[in-house]
Design goal:
313 residues; alpha/beta; Nucleotidyltransferase, domain 5; 3 domains; two-stranded antiparallel sheet; 12 helices; 7 strands; 60% helix; globular
Length: 313
């Protein structure tokens, strides 16, 4: 009987270390388009059950996209999950070859679900949304420096940088909106999402880029995927504090801001928030519950292709 093949690939800026299980074959190549295409052809011939990569600051993006486009079962996992798996396995040493083997073992034993990477257009809009977040981070950093600077020359420099970043943000928003308008599917989803009080352009862009599964999963699955389903922390007679963790940080951050606005301007979310606070829940706990509620509503809207109604579940 043929055994399933699991592949772990450790990605760095310049090289890829590949490990196959159960054969323990190893391979190293450069992280270049030509070598990745050759690697993809070799992996296609092996028909692997699963290929696992770590998210490594973007260095994995080209590899993941090429493997995905060739029809290979590839998924990109959170490095924290792999580190936790390594500690649980007693694996403390760390080299590129060891990490590749660890990723292959993680694939074999944990079998994480495949994540849809989308087509080239999907990845392009995701790249632009990520760039927008980077620009916002830079704007925040320069704004903080502006409040601390006293020298006139330094103040002028900071203001000049802020003007440049603001211009870049405007151009980036225009580019993203163009991509959305050019895609009938994205435009339809964006129009539905825009009908919800509290959900603005930034949230819509983040949902389209980072949550392509919206509308395709049930309420439990989408909540777990994003990381807004509270996790129990109970042991014996102790009832621990329930908290959210894991999931997709970019989507969760966007939902946080949308829920914050919705508690004031969305009658469905506002009443939910007020009811929770009145029952004694902390405001942050109530707001997280509103994030969860809002996500369930958005998922139902996309699934049923129905615009906002105050009576949404």
């Amino acid at each position: 009987m043929t055994q399933d093949t699991f592949v772990g690939i450790d990605v760095s800026k310049d090289t890829l270390d590949v490990h196959l299980l159960p054969t323990h074959r190893r391979h190293q190549c450069s992280n270049s388009p030509a070598d990745i295409q050759t690697l993809a052809a070799q992996l296609l011939a092996l028909t692997p059950s699963l290929i696992v990569l770590e998210a490594t600051g973007g260095y994995q993006a080209q590899l993941a996209a090429i493997l995905y486009d060739r029809g290979l079962p590839v998924t990109v996992v959170n490095p924290r999950q792999v580190r936790d798996f390594a500690r649980a396995s007693g694996q403390l040493a760390k080299t590129d070859r060891i990490d590749a083997e660890l990723l292959a073992k993680f694939a074999q034993r944990m079998q994480p679900p495949l994540r849809e990477l989308g087509d080239e257009n999907d990845r392009t809009i995701k790249a632009w949304v990520n760039r927008r977040r980077q620009l916002l981070d830079m704007h925040t950093a320069e704004s903080n420096r502006l409040g601390q600077a006293r020298d006139k020359v330094v103040l002028a420099s900071i203001r000049s940088i802020l003007q440049l970043i603001e211009a870049q943000l405007k151009d980036t928003d225009h580019t993203i909106d163009q991509f959305i308008r050019q895609s009938p599917l994205w435009l339809e989803k964006a129009t539905l999402l825009d009908s919800v009080p509290g959900v603005g352009p930034a949230t819509i862009r983040s949902l389209l880029a980072h949550l392509p599964e919206l509308g395709r999963l049930n309420r439990r699955q989408i909540s777990a995927l994003v990381g807004v389903a509270p996790m129990n922390d109970d042991s014996g007679k102790r009832g621990g504090y329930r908290a959210i963790r894991g999931g997709r940080t970019d989507v969760r951050n966007a939902l946080y801001m949308a829920a914050l606005v919705a508690t004031r301007y969305n009658p469905r979310i506002r009443s939910h928030y007020q009811r929770l606070v009145a029952s004694g829940k902390k405001k942050l706990v109530a707001l997280i519950a509103c994030m969860h509620k809002l996500l369930i509503i958005l998922n139902a809207m996309i699934k049923t292709n129905q615009p906002w109604r105050c009576q949404m579940p």
